[in-house]
Amino acid sequence: MELMQVEGVSKFYQDGRVPAALRDVSFNVHEKDFVGVVGPSGCGKSTLLRILAGLESPSSGRVWFHGREVSAPQARISMVFQSCALFPWRTVVQNIEYGLELRKVPKAQRREIALGLVRLVGLAGFEDAYPKRLSGGMKQRVGIARALAVDPEIVLMDEAFSSVDEYTAEVLRGEVTDIWKETGKTFMLVTHNLGEAIQLAERVVVLSSRPGHVKSLLDIDLPRPRDPEDPDFVRLHKELFALLKEELETSIVRHRLRRVRELQELSDLERT
Amino acid sequence: MRRRPLRGQFPTKVLLVRLTPLKDVKDRLLCLLPLTVILSGWELLSASGIVRAELVPPPSKVLMTLTSQLSTASFVLMVLRSFSNLTLGILLALFMAAPLAIWAGLKRQVDSTITPSIMLAGSLPDLALLPLLMMWFGEGSLAAILMAGVCAFFPIYFTTREGVRSIPTEYFQVSTIFHSGRFDFVQKLILPAIVPQAITGLRLAFDFVWEVILAIEIIARVAGIGSFINMSVERQTVDAAFAGIFAIGILSIIVDRCFFGFLEERVKRWA
């Protein structure tokens, strides 16, 4: 069943000079899906995620969640931030409990949920630690636990592994795959790391350079756990890389063309 | 959930811990050296009659006067009166400045509307208002409290505003994602986030307002420890004047260590 439908979403800004962030983006997300979103930097993939989360509204187009339009944050859509965004004045457990607290879940119950999640993300023993005592990887585990605490149907992750070192990121990816399988929730991950997308996702949405639109939709039907040295994995990686390289080149060409046009306009001005 | 900012160590424990950590007793003792030198030099000068004891009484005499004064109700009441004027003034300023500062910190438009005027008002010498306040509100504690409030307003406003402005955007997104209501937004995000800056603001206000309160009491003769010092000098009981000054010093140290020190220790756990 379709959980989320993205329908012709565009995003442009009031000041006309900046090129639009997104142009006519459409794709569907079904239940228990794991969608990776990749694209050249600045293509608006994080903007897309914020629109899906209801944090920003699209300039045109719509996002449907369970057949209802998303115009504000939804109770069952949760998010993991690149910077973790843990509240430093709250302990690990208190950070995880935050969403439940706002939903007026009784204290005993939310503590139970939080402690369960602490164990799930492997932070037992750090329940009462403040974020400043945690490493980057541990912080992101708390961020994931906080997102899961409110029992969402879909978890949106914005470059969730790019603020930690590569080894920790590798471990976290494995854990997220396990969580995805165990909880049966839907995940969407925005990333610039192609290998990461192939390793985690069931499907990968490839966005073009700014303004981003869906250039390609790739199904990743490799058996799990996925081995980056598997020939199929390598083939997909090459395929994705070729797609992005093309985009990067067009964006450079476009950029040069713009410069040329600007120079042209300048010389026109001088002549008149 | 009730917030529990003050749970944990009892304030006096903080005082003791901060004053006597056993590992660097030596350093602590060393810092007492200049004080000892000054006090003993002063004692010698006074006792030997090089300086007239009526003008500069020896510290031993001041100490004796202080202990005897501390057991008289009128002296203690004077000190308490100054202290309550100071505290009420700061609280008044806090209740006026903090909501405004939070509002300005959150909304750019509000900030650009009100902050320039507040900056302008803050750059005026605050004490110049005193004669007017005394004309409007009488020459008693009320004028002193209002004066203290005016002086404390600016440091509290600017530090709190800065605190709100330095909250990362993602924190707001987190609170939006989880459907924070307006009340929870202030209680669970804004207030805890600005605690460090608010403490700085209160501390600045506290130091500044002490001076202002004393000036008011000395110049305008509003009842309090300042007017006590003034009267003692006029009555040529200089030892009592010094006792008043020492009492202020001791009270400031206690507030600094117990109240602000305690709050800072709490904040240091996470900040």
Can you offer a commentary on this structure?
Chain A is of the alpha/beta class and 272 residues long. Helix content of chain A is 42%, strand content 21%. In chain A, helix 2 packs across helix 3 and helix 6 crosses helix 7. The longest helix of chain A is centred in the last third of the chain and has 41 residues. The mean pLDDT of chain A is 89. The two termini of chain B are 21 Å apart. The N terminus of chain B is likely disordered. At the A-B interface, strand 6 and helix 2 of A face helix 9 and helix 10 of B.
Q: What is the mean pLDDT of chain A? A: 89
Following the backbone from N to C, one meets helices and strands of chain A in this order, namely EEEHEEEHHHEHEHEEH
**Strand/helix succession of chain B:** HHHHHHHHHHHH
Shape of chain B: globular
What share of the residues of chain A does DSSP label as strand, in percent? 15-25%
Envelope shape of chain A: globular
**If you compute it from the alpha carbons, what radius of gyration of chain B comes out, rounded to the nearest whole angstrom?**
22 Å
Strand content of chain B: under 5%
Query: Would you count the extended β strands of chain A for me?
Result: 10
Q: Count of DSSP helices of chain A?
A: 7
What is the number of strand segments of chain B?
A: 0
Low-confidence stretches of chain B: 1-14
Describe the main β-sheet of chain B briefly: none
The quaternary organization reads as heterodimer
Total helical segments of chain B? 12
* Biggest sheet statistics of chain A: 6 strands, mixed
